Automatic annotation (TrEMBL):
UniProt cross-references to Gene3D superfamilies, sorted A to Z: FAD/NAD(P)-binding domain
Bilayer-crossing regions: 472-496
Organism whose genome encodes this protein: Campylobacter estrildidarum
Protein name per Swiss-Prot or TrEMBL: NAD(P)/FAD-dependent oxidoreductase
InterPro entries: Amino_oxidase (IPR002937), FAD/NAD-bd_sf (IPR036188), Retinol_saturase (IPR052206)
Keywords: FAD, Flavoprotein, Membrane, NAD, NADP, Signal, Transmembrane, Transmembrane helix
Molecular-function GO term, any one: oxidoreductase activity
Domain Amine oxidase: residue ranges: 13-500
The keyword Membrane appears for this protein: yes
Length: 506
């Protein structure tokens, strides 16, 4: 009973995606999660008779011809287990003297041209460029038919080669086709979903995600916890197991090969064994903690992760109201990006260069849709997200507490500026910081997006397999393609396919 084909350490979306696909393909899988809730950042917690979504604001839902995620969902049978709610628009962008709502589909380009007629040529070039990037990432090689594989060097391969050689950043492309700094900020308004600086953020990642957001965006009814639960159901229905409150304390090895794990549950220690181990956690935990007693030379792996920058983190304000704020503020969108005038008018687009109060604020009004989160008819959720960095919160206990309260109140005040008296309907508020993410996921510096997307190519992400320990694999925000819900789900699918090919070839 303690022997498995695959053991997954952690139940974030990368681990759940990998485990689901392996279980669907007949492998005996065990997922061990140290927390009481599964899902990593894709989870919900309760406050005031309401589920609060810890991570998901919206999910890009693109054209099935280019959005690989749709194919993966179909392969897993996820669509039969979740309900997706279409969002009313891509998002709205607000500043003191500016308001622009971005619609879905073909109207996006027209809307932007109407607002910036002097940039019509550049806007058309932009949409053509993001479509090309999305097309290039439509499939992994094993999901292509014979004709697609034959034509790959001519239809797709050259795009990857160009990306790798030029290593273009978002600002490189935007600066080459667009002059208006405000338009550049608008096209990159949601950079906080992945990064903080368009001068460092790779073009391909931006382009693929934006193309699919413009195509369509959705929310998982019941929150990201419902998505994680659906993955869990798939695993269990296919003879796998998912266990919470099971903290892996050691990866067991023999002759430099991973053979199992030792974990703690309710104060007792257990050992389980497997032909393959997948780490769905920060790689530094793996190499500095879980393998530290195995007397292995891990220098190659440690060097690899030391040479990579970690992505920025987030501040999240969770706000509960006792009135339906969509009825009180009918012009309030689902996703509202509020730009401070100082940032909007500046040529500097690096979010972290500005004080927290001057950074772009994303306010998500969940009451705009049938979200499935409220357990009472008089509970309505709003969540604010702002880019941040761990070092901003590396304070002693008292200063940390005071700063949390200061930032929370500044967020509430700013919302009142744009939606007068909004705070008068608020019955609960709390703030999560990069330290909160560290405490919950144990990811160093609260890096919710793993390694920073600073360079093109999978070599700049964590390799899916260890260089030093055989049969040790990775699937998380740190691996390729990484970052965000889509990236981690596809990363888990990628790793699972690599492991299956290993089984078939053995």
């Amino acid at each position: 009973m303690n022997k498995f084909d695959v053991i997954v350490i952690g139940s974030g979306l990368g681990g759940l995606s990998a485990a689901s696909y392996l279980a669907k393909n007949g492998k005996k899988v065990l997922v061990l999660e140290q927390h009481s809730l599964i899902g990593g950042c894709a989870t919900c917690f309760k406050r005031k008779d309401m589920l609060i979504d810890a991570g998901l604001h919206e999910m890009d839902w693109g054209d099935p011809k280019t959005d690989m995620k749709k194919m993966v969902f179909k392969k897993l049978g996820l669509m039969e287990k979740i309900e997706l709610v279409s969002l009313p628009s891509v998002w709205s962008i607000l500043s003191k003297d500016f308001h622009l709502q971005i619609p879905h589909g073909g109207e996006v380009k027209k809307t932007l041209i109407q607002s910036f007629p002097h940039e019509e040529k550049g806007i058309k070039k932009y949409f053509k460029a993001i479509k090309l990037q999305a097309y290039s990432a439509r499939r992994f090689s094993w999901d292509m038919n014979k004709l697609e594989l034959f034509l790959f060097p001519f239809t797709t391969g050259w795009i990857f080669l160009k990306n790798k050689l030029l290593n273009l950043k978002v600002s490189d492309v935007l600066d080459s086709i667009i002059n208006d700094d405000k338009l550049k900020k608008i096209l990159n308004i949601n950079i906080g979903y992945y990064h903080h600086d368009p001068k460092k953020f790779i073009w391909s990642f931006h382009a693929i995600a934006q193309k699919h957001y413009y195509d369509g965006s959705v929310y998982v009814k019941g929150g990201s916890g419902a998505l994680s639960k659906a993955f869990e159901e798939i695993i269990c229905e296919n003879n796998g197991e998912v266990k919470s409150k099971c903290e892996v304390v050691e990866i067991l090895t023999s002759n430099s090969k991973a053979t199992g794990v030792r974990y703690k549950q309710n104060g007792k220690f257990f050992e389980v064994h497997a032909d393959n181990i997948i780490a769905n956690c920060d790689p530094e935990i793996v190499y500095n903690e879980l393998l530290k007693n195995q007397n292995l030379d891990l220098s190659l792996d440690i060097k690899e992760i030391k040479n990579k920058n970690r992505a920025c983190s987030l501040i999240s304000a969770y706000l509960i109201y006792d009135r339906n704020i969509s009825e009180i503020y009918p012009n309030m969108d689902y996703a509202n990006f509020i730009l401070d005038k100082e940032f909007f008018n500046s040529s500097n687009s690096n979010t972290l260069d500005f004080e927290i109060s001057k950074r772009t604020l994303a306010f998500v009004n969940y009451s705009k849709i049938d979200n499935g989160l409220s357990q009472k008819n008089d509970r309505f959720l709003g969540v604010v997200a702002i880019s941040s960095h761990f070092k901003e919160w590396d304070l002693d206990k008292e200063k940390y507490k005071a700063k949390k309260e200061e930032i929370l109140q500044s967020i509430i005040s700013k919302l009142d500026e744009y939606f007068p008296n909004l705070s008068s309907y608020m019955i609960h508020s709390e703030l999560a910081t990069p330290k909160s993410i560290l405490r919950y996921t144990r990811a160093k510096e609260g890096a919710a997006y793993g390694f920073s997307q600073d360079n093109e190519g999978r070599s700049y992400r964590l390799n899916y397999v260890s260089k030093s320990v055989k049969n040790l694999f990775f699937a998380s925000a740190f691996t390729f393609p990484g970052g965000g819900f889509t990236g981690t789900i596809l990363g888990g699918y990628y790793t699972a396919n690599k492991i299956l090919r290993k089984f078939y070839n053995s």
